[in-house]
Amino acid sequence: MGSALLSGPGALAKRAQGTRVPWISSLGLRGVLCAQAAGGLELPNTPKHRLTAKHAPATTEGGNTPSDQELVPKRISRRAASRRRLTPHPLQSLSLSQLAGSRESGGGRGYSRHHNLPAASQGNSLPPPSPGNPQRRRLQRRTRHPSLPKTSQPLTRHPLKAALRPSRERVPGGTSFLSCLSLPAPRVIARLPPEGGSLGRGGAGPAWLSGLGRSAWPLRSLGRLAGPPHPPSSSRPVPCLSSLGRVRRMASEMESSLEASFTSSGAVSGASVFLPPARSRIFKIIVIGDSNVGKTCLTYRFCAGRFPDRTEATIGVDFRERAVEIDGERIKIQLWDTAGQERFRKSMVQHYYRNVHAVVFVYDMTNMASFHSLPSWIEECKQHLLASDIPRILVGNKCDLRSAIQVPTDLAQKFADTHSMPLFETSAKNPNDNDHVEAIFMTLAHKLKSHKPLMLSQPPDNGITLKPEPKPAMTCWC
Ligand SMILES: Nc1nc2c(ncn2[C@@H]2O[C@H](COP(=O)(O)OP(=O)(O)OP(=O)(O)O)[C@@H](O)[C@H]2O)c(=O)[nH]1
């Protein structure tokens, strides 16, 4: 049928002109080959090396047309089929990242999404895929990103995902950081007021806590780490450093309450308002000295009237207050029991020295090193610009341990004279020295009262009273 068609007058005319035969596709390859073998058709645009005489099927004897099976040369068929299979689709030859980039950059083929440059210039030095080199094409398929190793990662994984995954693997021992964060915080036991309801003997709790009520005491008190009572000398429990932040916050609250107290006394009042006179003045006294010299015990003895059952190293600062009456005036003595250990005080120091009215230097009479540290404590006061006229006293503690005393009284007295301070030797532990401890702080209170520091003075007589401004006369616009 094919030869019949090809030998028609139209086909011959086309052949004579040597032009392409548009309807040849309807014949199929077999028909074309038959026609060519019969010499009836010349295909000008068909490469001769692909359709040559040797590929054409031999005419069977008797001039019969070969069967369909014979008409299709097997070699040509296989090669054509293999070429069709090996010729990549343009998208097939692109790597994943290139595909993603081409999507983002509007479909530019083979371009990096980062710089819009050809992928080859980004470090992927492979040439564009060639249809005739299947090995190279395979390489190109395996190469996804120049920075990633050629591992057996699934193609669907984004490179970034692999980089950001490692939380568990990175932490040694298989613990993730989140589990580290969820470690239980150290237990902190709040210091409760001593029996009787208040810290001091004055009855009521500290003024700066009065607004909170008694139920707020444990929250407002400073925490100390739970633990057994430590032995009298060296091995003391180590408090938790994380409590320092809480202590610092407390110290600032104390300061602001002190400043509020000063303000309410009328001495510091930036605004032109009239404030009622304060009911009682507050004196801030800081107690400083080496760790373990007995600062906590001394302040506790004065405010609670007894030796504490157990003590731990102070973190930052402990506050105690006692109200006393001197010459008919009620004043409050606020004792700041500071930490002796450097690591528990360094971030608190600026709070200690603000608005200080008096300083108590304490050393341990059974420990010469604590006495030798006194000059450094005095120096620290100087560095924090403590006024030279602020009352200071020197206290040697633990005089009950007579057999262990290392610091002779005359040496201590000489030092005190050098620095113009009165010297007291006492014991916070010995109940017989109770009056002595009391006398130390009461002396200070008397001195402070007579000292009449500017900040704590009563409101001046020329206090400005706010007068209501005269209202403007009503104007009716209607
Ligand atoms: N024998 C005797 N021991 C005392 C006396 N005062 C304190 N201690 C003991 O000395 C140790 C330390 O007392 P603290 O009051 O905690 O010392 P501190 O100076 O406050 O120490 P830090 O808080 O670390 O600055 C405790 O074991 C007390 O029991 C005292 O007068 N006599």
Question: Which secondary structure elements does this structure contain, and how are they paired or packed?
Answer:
Layout: H1 2-6, H2 9-17, H3 28-37, H4 68-71, H5 74-86, H6 96-104, H7 134-142, H8 159-163, H9 167-170, H10 177-181, E1 188-190, H11 217-220, E2 223-225, H12 243-264, E3 281-289, H13 295-304, E4 317-326, E5 329-338, H14 349-352, E6 358-364, H15 368-372, H16 374-383, E7 392-397, H17 409-418, E8 423-425, H18 434-451
Parallel strand pairs: 3-5, 3-6, 6-7, 7-8
Antiparallel strand pairs: 1-2, 4-5
This protein binds guanosine-5'-triphosphate.
Structural summary, described in words:
- By secondary structure, this protein is an alpha/beta fold.
- It is built from 18 helices and eight strands.
- It has helices at 2-6, 9-17, 28-37, 68-71, 74-86, 96-104, 134-142, 159-163, 167-170, 177-181, 217-220, 243-264, 295-304, 349-352, 368-372, 374-383, 409-418, 434-451; strands at residues 188-190, 223-225, 281-289, 317-326, 329-338, 358-364, 392-397, 423-425.
- A six-stranded mixed β-sheet has the order 4-5-3-6-7-8, with helices on both faces. Strands 1-2 form a two-stranded antiparallel ribbon.
- The longest helix is centred in the middle third of the chain and has 22 residues, at 243-264.
- The radius of gyration is 49 Å and the shape is globular.
- The protein starts with a helix and ends in a 27-residue tail after the last helix.
- The site of guanosine-5'-triphosphate (GTP) has 21 residues, from helix 13.
- One of its GO terms (cellular component) is Golgi apparatus.
